[in-house]
Amino acid sequence: MMQDLRTWLEAVENIGQLEVVSGAHWNLEMGALVGLVAGKQEHPALLFDKIPDYEKGGRVLGCAMTTPGRVAVTFDIQGNPNHYELAEEFRQKLPGWEKGMRSFPPKAVNQAAFLENIQTGKDINLWTFPSPLWCELDIGRYIGTGDAVVTRDPDTGEINVGTYRIMVHDEKTLGLFIAPGKHGRIHVEKYRSRGQDCPVAVSFGHHPLVFGIAALEVPSGAEYNFLGAVRNEPYPVFIEEITGLPVPADSEIIVVGRSPAGKTREEGPFSEWTGYYASKQAQAPIIEVERVYYRHNPVILGVPNSNPAQSAYFRYYRGVIKSAMLHNELEKAGLVGVRAVSISEAFGEQWVVVSITQRYAGHAKQAALLASQSRSSVHMGRYVVVVDDDIDPRDIDEVIWAICTRSDPVQDIDIIRRTWSSPLDPIIRKPAEAFFNSRGIIDACKPFEWKDEFPKEIIMDQELAKRVKGKWGDIFV
After folding, report:
1. 335 with 370: CB under 8 angstroms?
2. Domain ranges of the chain
3. Greatest Cα-to-Cα distance within the chain, rounded to the nearest angstrom
4. Residue 12 φ/ψ region, left for φ over 0, alpha for ψ in the -120 to 50 degree band, beta for the rest
5. Residue 475 burial by CB count (10 A; 0-12/13-18/19+): exposed, middle or buried?
6. Gap between the Cα atoms of 150 and 147, Å rounded
7. CATH class of 5-301
8. What's the pLDDT tens digit per position in 186-237?
9. Distance of alpha carbon 353 from alpha carbon 399, whole angstroms
10. Does the N-terminal peptide bond of residue 431 adopt cis geometry, omega within 30 degrees of 0?
11. CA–CA separation, 169 and 200 (whole Å)
């Protein structure tokens, strides 16, 4: 297993999937390039170098895990799997990783590459790093999009490592936005309710596996353990002396400080994963920076967002991994007959499709209700569609065909109300006191009680297709 971001870059370059881009400006150009490139099915990771105003160093990586090949490299999955093979690999590996977490607590080490440079006191300057203005209407420059924010629960001592958006307010102050209900926010709010400052450490450049785990719904407080299980060896952490927090020892940049109980600043809007500026401008906690550590010529891991209808591969890695997670969660809950699951890489948990082999009356409804509230899909979901086992849940045309021909709106659509949502939800009018939404449940399976009598589909015989292709093969070239 690779140890840091730089070895990851070497591995990706070795398979021909890294493009070095020199001279792109931090002011919108990098964001535009990432958005345009991520709209293509096959595209390289982009390493931005020689960024204007940062000739002395500082690089930004985009599109790290937006293709099956680079996701496989990140999780040390061998071969060159396609989407379905990759999803099945995750399905098989996830139970072992979860079971093995207890065997791999993080390992404290005394050395870390980010100790090469240290800023303290008056020397602290967050503008040392090329934080991008990713999209035109962003309120400011966001250094934290693929970050790992480390906090500690003041009651239990549990460590959380989560990905939350981080804005640069000025040379010594960061903005910290965390959606309600997320573990990092719960930690910060516990400190604030007691009038205490919350210690915070943030890593801004690390092996993409760190981001991949920090941004997923792994068991609470188990991110470092989960990283160890994936690596099959304890994950190395460095105990930072100001906060006492364990930070990724392979990080390129570590920023530490405190989120003061009585202080907030205006934050947002920011171009979010839904394709909208939904959270508006609002007061958010800050981090008053007390120390900065960084490697020579550090690399920031950038994971900005775009309109998913135009750049569907921005969230690719989340779609494939979360689909595998939800599939396993459904089977663990006792649901039988699950053929395949798709959480959309374009729309995330807002579009979940489950394909089942119907075994009993109510089977489809059970699948839909479980999928709507499972750990991997519950936050800010919107639609859950259940289809028969002849439908590919990832093929939007097949799914819409099933909805239009196998479901009746009166009988087969249900609504679940007052479910967990977020300030990022564009359908919630702001300001709001609480963030609820509803879930549309669509049973797009053939009616169970007469499914064997359902009209036959038009299906081309495979032998006929093979014979015709062989006879007129030039048409298919």
Report:
1. yes
2. 5-301, 316-451
3. 78
4. alpha
5. exposed
6. 10
7. mainly beta
8. 999 999 999 999 999 999 999 999 999 999 988 888 999 999 999 999 999 9
9. 8
10. yes
11. 16
Measured in degrees and rounded to the nearest 5, phi and psi for residue 344 equal -60, 135
**Chain-centre distance of CA 177, in angstroms?**
16
Q: With CA atoms as reference, report the closest residue to 211 among 311, 300, 112, 323.
A: 300
Q: Are 170 and 68 in contact (CB under 8 A)?
A: no
Name the DSSP letter for residue 420. Answer: E
- What is the model's pLDDT at position 262? 87
pLDDT recorded at residue 36? 87
Q: How confident is the model at residue 233, as a pLDDT?
A: 95
SS3 46: strand
Give the model confidence (pLDDT) of 111-168 as tens digits. 999 999 999 999 999 999 999 999 999 999 999 999 999 999 999 999 999 999 999 9
354, 384 contact by CB (below 8 A): yes
Q: What angle do CA 329, 333, 336 make, to 5 degrees?
A: 95
Domain 316-451 adopts which CATH fold? UbiD C-terminal domain-like (3.40.1670)
Q: Would you call 75 helix, strand, or coil by DSSP?
A: coil
Distance CA 175, CA 192 (A): 16
CA distance 267 to 140: 9
Q: For residue 242, which of 190, 292, 298 has the smallest C-alpha distance?
A: 292
Q: How far apart are CA 60 and CA 48, in angstroms?
A: 5
pLDDT at residue number 280: 82
Instruction: Output DSSP code: residue 281.
Output: S
pLDDT given at position 111:
94
Enter the tokens of residue 98. Answer: 């979860």
Are the CB atoms for 26 and 133 separated by under 8 Å?
yes
d(CA 347, CA 317): 12
142: nearest Cα among 113, 176, 119: 176
C-alpha distances in Å from residue 67, one per residue of 26, 40, 190: 24, 10, 39
pLDDT given for residue 316 in this prediction: 86
Count helices and strands (H / E) in the chain. 12, 22
Check: CB of residue 33 under 8 Å from CB of residue 19.
no
CB atoms within 10 A of CB 248: 28
Low-confidence ranges of the chain (pLDDT < 50): none
Residues 6+ apart with CB under 8 A from 135: 28, 31, 270, 271, 304, 305, 306
Beta-strand pair 436-443/383-388: parallel
Backbone torsions φ then ψ of 159, nearest 5 degrees: -95, 130
Single-letter residue type at 176: L
Q: What is the pLDDT, as a whole number, of residue 310?
A: 56
